[in-house]
Design brief:
Layout (H helix, E strand, L loop, with lengths): L1 E5 L11 H13 L3 E5 L12 E4 L2 E4 L1 H12 L9 H28 L1 H6 L10 H21 L7 H19 L12 H14 L6 H6 L3 H14 L8 H4 L1
Helix pairs in contact: 1-2, 1-7, 3-5, 3-6, 3-7, 7-9
Length: 242
């Protein structure tokens, strides 16, 4: 039995982290039994979530977990794709994880209202005398990484404009297909779903979310993926929430 370590439900989502969501959906795609446990990043071999324990072997980072699943269990997440399509799927995955992700970080962590509503509560269990200092330090570190990513160097409207160009690329790629690369899901769909669900969750108000809602095929895609992989989760379809 594989054990998946993640943050758990929150922010109106079945899993707070888009990267944990990616791995969980890929485990479901591969049909592998697993159990899920809550953990914090310091518990991971790489200091980040997700990580898995597979028969005593710890594997950290969602991309390396996918490679582990493919190698150990012989499951090809991109079965049926041509070599060119596999390359395109990888390029979209990199765009999602290294561009859209940082826009999501800005909306959750840098925006003071959203930070107070969401990530600040990660520290509710800390000793009261040290709680605010931990919150301030964490927000500062994340904001610093946001700046170093490049996206945080722009004015708020400009960084959203850049992120929307990536959302537009995803919308064009999806078109009227069921999934990004065709009529069956592949590895990049787990990545896209995790990130888009995070962006579109009604829990947070943000310019990024408002702009993302302008792509009806992306909102329908998130609803469809949620129905497929988290049918038990109390998710209000985005078409109704809008």
């Amino acid at each position: 039995m594989i054990t998946l370590y993640g943050f758990g439900a929150g922010f109106g989502l079945p899993e707070i982290s888009p990267f944990v969501t990616k791995t969980e959906v890929q485990l479901k795609m591969a049909g592998l039994p697993y159990r899920k446990e809550r953990a914090m990043p310091p518990a991971s071999p790489k200091g980040q979530l997700p990580f898995i324990d597979d028969g005593g072997e710890a594997v950290a980072d969602s991309t390396f977990i996918r490679a582990h699943i493919e190698r150990r269990y012989g499951f090809d997440f991109d079965a049926g794709l041509t070599l060119a399509e596999r390359a395109q799927a990888w390029a979209f995955e990199r765009m999602i994880e290294h561009h859209v992700y940082w826009a999501l970080v800005g909306a959750r962590w840098v925006d003071p209202v959203n930070f107070a509503k969401g990530p600040a509560h990660f520290f509710d269990g800390a000793p009261e005398h040290n709680r605010e200092k931990l919150r301030e330090d964490a927000q500062f570190r994340v904001a610093e990484n946001y700046l170093l990513s490049g996206l945080g160097r722009h004015a708020p409207d400009d960084d959203v404009d850049l992120a929307v160009r990536s959302l537009f690329a995803l919308s064009v790629q999806l078109g009227d297909k069921a999934f990004l690369m065709g009529n069956r899901p592949c590895g990049v769909d787990a990545t896209a779903f995790g990130m888009l669900a995070g962006v579109l969750s009604p829990f947070f108000e943000s310019a990024l979310r408002e702009r993302a809602e302008g792509f009806p095929n992306l909102t329908a895609y998130v609803d469809r993926m949620m129905d497929d992989h988290y049918p038990e989760f109390a998710w209000t379809p985005l078409r109704q929430a809008a």
